[in-house]
Amino acid sequence: MDTVRAFLRHPSGMIGLVLLLVIVIVAIIAPKLFPVSPWEMVGAPFTPPGEDGLWLGGDTLGRDVAAGVAHGARVSLLIGIASALAAMAIGVVIGAMSGYFGGKVDLVLMRMTELFQTIPAFVLAILLVATFNPSLLTIILTIGAVSWPPLARLTRAEFLRLRHREFVEAALCQGERTWRIVLGHILPNAISPILVVTSLTVATAILLESALSFMGLGDPNLMSWGFMIGAGRTVIRNAWWMSVFPGLAILITVLAINLFGEGLSDVLNPRVLRRRS
Amino acid sequence: MSEAAQIDTPVLAVESLSIALPKGGDRELAVENVSFAIKRNEVVCLVGESGSGKSMIAHAVLSLLPRGVGIVAGAVTVAEENPAQLDGRGLRRLRGGKAAMIFQEPLSSLNPLKRVGKQIEEMILAHQQPVPSAAEVQARVQTLLTQVGLPNPQLLERSFPFELSGGQRQRVMIAMAMANRPALLIADEPTTALDVTTQRQILRLIGDLRRERGMGVLLITHDFGVVADVAHRVVVLRHGKVVEQGPASEVLRHPKAAYTRELIDAVPKARLADIHGTIARPEPLLEVVGLQKTFRVKRGWLQPAREVVAADGVSLTLHECETLAVVGESGSGKSTLGRMIMRLTEPDAGAIRFGGADLRQLRGEALRQARRQLQIVFQDPFASLDPRQKVGDAIARGPMAYGMSRTDAMALAKRLLVRVGLSETTADRYPHEFSGGQRQRICIARALALKPRVLIADEAVSALDVSVQAQVLALLAELRQEMRLAMIFITHDLRIAAEIADRVIVLQKGRIVEEGSTAEVFTAPRQAYTRDLLDAIPGRAFFDQPGFAAGNASEFDDRVQRDALKM
């Protein structure tokens, strides 16, 4: 496909993709790389990096930081992707209804979206997680519930743009049913920017999850990057490695996703691809 | 230089010019071995269909070719300079100095955020050495605006492009082009985006300015009507090669090349004799009564909304197998009328009676069922097909929505594709693989798949090349007989209306100003507005149209002679 080929020629997009693939592979083979649970104490507390066979050192209780980072990748990616998909599902449905039907439906849905946009996402996320017990599912749903407004607005704008295009009106005149027009004609032509924003939402979702875990509001059974930084922050002056390595992991992952998303955006953008006239 | 020598030197000489396209284009050379010259006070028309390379030549003259496209052989000489050899500075001096250009779409050629006076000033300041004083520049801007026939130059100078009409914008573009008294004016389809009446005014203006200043004009057009009205010499291009060139009267009267003949023949002409008189049938198929529609455009908090009347008591009837043309300038509400009948735009008042019911009262499923018998073909064949849907699916979707099985619908789609002149295998291809004319055929097949009784064609051939236009019109005429279709043909081009319609409705500002059989309206127009529209048809004098009021070939010869004497 042309799109795939164009992406392969996009330098920063490819860097993002390669980094992302490395992180995904680490996440997948983490149990093989570190068969011992990351919660297990394997060395002396405060082991500096490189000693006792712990490449990235040990934490305050002697747990392996490297194992934590590898296992944390699973959690971060899972929550990041799942909650971005949740946000996309909510955002696309609300945006599509708002853009297609217009009028009162649009008015009500957009005021609701604005309500969500006026509340700081992180504060709302804390509130939601604190109300429901923190678990993998509630965290995913919470992050999804605070991340959808930009996607809804984007979808609405795309629908408004396409709603009165002649091919959509032609489909209407052909007697096609509303759901077929929406799913068959408008959505496929609107999907590119939605995918790009969703991919970037993965990055913010990972940051949100880390922040929640840092606050101690993560799933207590899962080793995550945010939790590790939170646990190591009090001793950062004499044991920098406990916070720095998970921090770097977050930095690299978010950077990789952003590079990938921007590459995707460039490739899917018709102005860059140059439509054949 | 002596006066005589100056007259002999052409202002533009194109000598065996070849321009290469980047690899992977549809042909190797965009332009191949093209030669022609323009003398002072001469209008040369470059004529050809889309893709013939006519714009490429114009862009090469000012060294404006897109990246990856370059001159591989031959040379262009503009006012004794070769733009290909000039450096950036020399080019800037040439462009807008000795040679100026105006484009097809005046809105996108003007800076939307700058007042038009400032934009004209810029042209003067960029070229005049020494820089004239502010008062002098101001005075020259005023003069220019007056010269291009714009009303109230003081006010106009302070307007933004969006506040002007299409014709006014093109006049501003011409004023900018004239700012430095160019020896050569290049006009790339300057009137294609404009109404017939505006087109005539703009062409006249260019002609007047040329005579006053003795400049050479390179006019690019696809319309032989325009050629007949303004050209001294014609260069006919096809696939980048010159098919024929010579004096306008010669080429138009006795074309040597078969292709030129085809293009001239393809210009729509009234064939009033062929049209069968409408037999008065008691029951009209479609009856529109007193449609009313006003668009309200909000203009900020404190200003009152601007109201545009698109339909003011429009009533019409349409019988089986009849073609009704709706003509008018842009903004006359003709497209809105078609859209209201299709229920794509909601009228404020009135009734649309079809098949014993008022379409305006129908909702939901009942409306969906009624729509089946009314179909529409839109103007832009590129916008009216879903880029992500295969052509066969696009046609089959309609019958499937009304319960036909997929296999039957696909078989029908393939039959229809063959009927409109495409092959069965095209069903599996995507719209971007087709040309504009082919796409419009697909759109027609899509509309016909539902076996409608009424077909609305909203400027359905306006975006097509003239030869393709003729083919699509012929196809529509055939299908009308075959399927006993009633058609509403919305167009701004009266030539097309005369060619295809039984009856004509003339719309002005949402109101029907004249209605009657095509022969009546075209031979004996009752309203001044209709007469204006008829007078503005390009090439009317040359294409001595049977039945047209006061159009005759001698007018064309008069003009040619007049111009010859003046040169």
TrEMBL record, chain A:
CDD domains: TM_PBP2. The chain crosses the membrane at residues 12-34, 77-101, 122-146, 194-218, 239-260. It is a multi-pass membrane protein. The keyword Iron does not apply. GO terms for cellular component: plasma membrane. InterPro entries: BP-dependent_transpt_permease, MetI-like, MetI-like_sf, OppC_N. Keywords: Cell membrane, Membrane, Peptide transport, Protein transport, Transmembrane, Transmembrane helix, Transport. Residues 73-261 form the ABC transmembrane type-1 domain. This is Oligopeptide transport system permease protein OppC. The gene is oppC.
TrEMBL record, chain B:
It comes from Bradyrhizobium ivorense. It is a peripheral membrane protein. It is an enzyme of class 3 (hydrolase). Its EC number is 3.6.3.-. The lineage of its organism: Bacteria, Pseudomonadati, Pseudomonadota, Alphaproteobacteria, Hyphomicrobiales. It is found in: Cell inner membrane. Involved in beta-(1-->2)glucan export. Transmembrane domains (TMD) form a pore in the inner membrane and the ATP-binding domain (NBD) is responsible for energy generation. Pfam families: ABC_tran (PF00005), oligo_HPY (PF08352). SUPFAM superfamilies: P-loop containing nucleoside triphosphate hydrolases. GO terms for biological process: peptide transport; transmembrane transport. InterPro entries: AAA+_ATPase, ABC_transp_ATP-bind, ABC_transporter-like_ATP-bd, ABC_transporter-like_CS, Oligopep_ABC_C, P-loop_NTPase. SMART domains: AAA (SM00382). PROSITE patterns: ABC_TRANSPORTER_1, ABC_TRANSPORTER_2. It comes from the Bacteria. Keywords: ATP-binding, Hydrolase, Nucleotide-binding, Transport. Residues 12-264, 286-534 form the ABC transporter domain. Belongs to the ABC transporter superfamily. This is Glutathione import ATP-binding protein GsiA. GO terms for cellular component: plasma membrane. GO terms for molecular function: ATP binding; ATP hydrolysis activity.
